[in-house]
């Protein structure tokens, strides 16, 4: 192989992949959730035994994605209520996008008969009332949506047990999308108690779109060192900050990956005159057959 060598500097070679989570473009590893996809890029990014490579960086310069996931989803749709120090009620709430009003209607439709529920648009807090002692119980996954923490117990006010949640209700969509790539190990997101939750972060995309809207993200700066030059499957995963895979409900994302390959030697390209001569020698019949 004839090469161009540089003894005092590194030359950059760039390859760009235009990818999507459409079923025709990848292997979907979590089905219609469309947030974990594998790509076979060995035919395009085959660097095995290439001694000219010093290092490789990866950048995600462009993303178009939907904000199609539900506010109430499979991770935050259970409610546990303890009534009269005797009865546990566990409810699995329907998935979807709600407001304070529509969520109130939903809760009243599933909670024991006799509960009332009001909300204050000044404080953005729910107030529950019932004619027996009750608690909103620890283990509920919708606690941050409703606005309580751990177990909160109603107090007797006159003849009615009343509980005003300690925090504001939260019907905001997920604040950001975390993109992971399996060939990285230097982007870090912290988990509970400052533990390392993930180290394969390709980028985080702020969610500035309303539900069912579209997000366009451009990144011209951040790039990361690739941990290996021997690519097999390239796996892209989109999660929330708790490392849970997002359910995009069958809606595809579109993105660009840019690989910068830094080399000490580069394959010498064919001279333009030789290229023209080669093209002119190709029989017309072969060109027509290929087309």
Q: Could you please describe the fold and organization of this structure?
A:
The chain is 11% helix and 39% strand. It is mostly beta strands and 291 residues long. The chain folds into two domains: 3-52 and 175-267, no CATH class; 78-164, no CATH class. The strands form six sheets. Strands 2, 5, 18, 19 and 21 form a five-stranded antiparallel sheet that branches. Strands 3-4-20-14-17 form a five-stranded antiparallel sheet, with no helix packed on it. Strands 7-6-10-11 form a four-stranded antiparallel sheet, with no helix packed on it. Residues 286-291 have low confidence and may be disordered.
Short characterization:
The chain has helices at about 100-110, 145, 270-280, 285-290; strands at about 5, 10-20, 25-30, 35-40, 55-65, 80-85, 85-90, 115-120, 125-130, 135, 150-155, 155, 160-165, 175-180, 190, 195-200, 200-205, 215-220, 225, 235-240, 255-265, 265.
Major beta-sheet overview: 5 strands, antiparallel
- How many structural units, i.e. domains? 2
Q: Spans with pLDDT under 50 lasting ≥5 residues?
A: 286-291
Rg over C-alpha atoms, rounded to the nearest angstrom = 27 Å
Helix content: 10-25%
Number of strands: 22
Count of runs of 4 or more consecutive helical residues = 4
């Amino acid at each position: 192989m004839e090469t161009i060598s540089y003894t005092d500097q590194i030359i950059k070679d760039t390859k760009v992949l235009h990818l999507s989570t459409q079923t025709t473009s990848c292997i979907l590893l979590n089905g219609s959730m469309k947030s974990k996809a594998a790509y076979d890029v060995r035919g395009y990014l085959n660097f095995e035994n290439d001694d000219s490579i010093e290092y490789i960086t990866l950048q995600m310069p462009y993303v178009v994605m939907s904000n199609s996931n539900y506010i109430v989803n499979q991770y935050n749709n259970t409610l546990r209520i303890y009534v009269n120090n005797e009865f546990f009620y566990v409810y699995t709430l329907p998935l979807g996008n709600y407001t304070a009003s529509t969520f109130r209607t939903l809760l009243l439709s599933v909670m024991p008969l006799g509960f009332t529920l009001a909300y204050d648009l000044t404080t953005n807090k729910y107030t529950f009332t019932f004619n027996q002692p009750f608690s909103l119980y620890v283990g509920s996954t919708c606690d941050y949506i409703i606005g309580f923490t751990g177990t909160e117990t109603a107090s007797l006010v006159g003849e009615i047990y009343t509980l005003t949640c300690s925090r504001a209700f939260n019907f905001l969509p997920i604040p950001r999308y975390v993109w992971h790539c399996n060939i990285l190990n230097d982007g870090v997101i912290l988990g509970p108690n400052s533990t390392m939750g993930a180290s394969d972060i390709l980028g985080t995309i702020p969610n500035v779109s309303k539900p069912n809207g579209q997000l366009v993200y451009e990144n011209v700066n951040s790039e990361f060192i690739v941990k290996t030059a021997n690519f097999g499957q390239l796996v892209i995963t989109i999660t929330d900050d708790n490392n849970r895979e997002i359910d995009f409900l069958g809606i595809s994302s579109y993105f660009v990956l840019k690989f910068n390959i830094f080399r000490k030697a580069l394959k010498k390209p064919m001279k333009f005159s030789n290229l023209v001569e080669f093209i002119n020698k190709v029989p017309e019949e072969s060109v027509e057959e290929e087309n």
